[in-house]
């Protein structure tokens, strides 16, 4: 193996180590930049590749930035705590009903605001709710597992539900509606099985009834302002309508979500500053913006450059060949196998690098091998399924799940690796199996394909 090939693999391995271990609290953006700079230094990528990375990733990075900004703003407004209080009221002291409602709230937040936002915002709220309701540690974990697993599972139906989806759509130039057509039914099935499997594992620990006492969550102005609720829902509906419209006029999805985030920031600044300036719950705009993970922007570009460097090591060719072969297997096996391959690789490699490696490999297979429209569509969405569900198999597969572990730990609770794997490994296999079955029905039986390949 020549020098550049060895360097590419070594840089990729080092970057993964920095991303997962985060020595001395290293920001993920800095970790990716280190990998990108080393790739340039050792010649595994060129300056032209770096410019290409900007071209490929800018919409996804900007869209995810908009999603996180929108989520942080809504959190500062007290929207998510307000929603949590609502579902506690709807549950009416029924522990099983509360379990379903928390899972559905998590799914809704993940779909609209991405899985990372669902984990970071809702997990602390669930920790606090279950503490105030005096649930035992075992009972509290039921609701936390539901929140953690459903957050990743539900992040598939919309392009903006996950950066994985955005990058994939940008890579192959398909629209919001194209994505929804294929991944909408898949998400319904996987969310159902996530809720069901976690319930079956922990059903004996779910309190049948609990004392529906008052839970104290500071919702800011949301609790008394019906006009603010209307503004927020009107904004969210407008954003969703905007997604559909951009599908027809081929505008980047980042323009829609960033516009919605900017509008709510303006509302927050003027309305909230006037209404609750005397309250400790008010956060200044600079404080709010500091909560946005700016490192994600450079992370997405940097890690793409590192993955591009693997081409010189022949890894892209190798994965392209495997993916192509798996897609030629007969019937359902041709859909299940590529999803399982991506799931296993993502669970041990981390889903972000695997997403990009999968996309680069699929694009190479499309151009060099000449995939049929059905095979190309199958591999694109198998890559999404595996990278969204793969982290359930092993926790290092997702930064969101690692953040979930950290939030739970800071909440005074502990989840051992064995406890996680007992549920996650089984759930992952079930979800991939049924997701691939739906994809097989859509592509293999109905003959649906992405318009770009027809």
UniProtKB/TrEMBL annotation:
**Where does this one sit in the cell?**
Cell membrane
Q: How does it sit in the membrane?
A: Multi-pass membrane protein
GO cellular component labels: plasma membrane
Q: InterPro entries, alphabetically?
A: Arsenical_pump_ArsB
Show the Pfam families listed in the entry: ArsB (PF02040)
Keywords, ordered alphabetically: Cell membrane, Membrane, Transmembrane, Transmembrane helix
* Transmembrane portions of the chain: 31-54, 61-80, 100-129, 180-202, 227-245, 251-271, 292-312, 332-352, 364-386, 392-408, 420-441
GO molecular function terms listed in the Swiss-Prot or TrEMBL record: arsenite transmembrane transporter activity
Q: What is this protein called?
A: Arsenical pump membrane protein
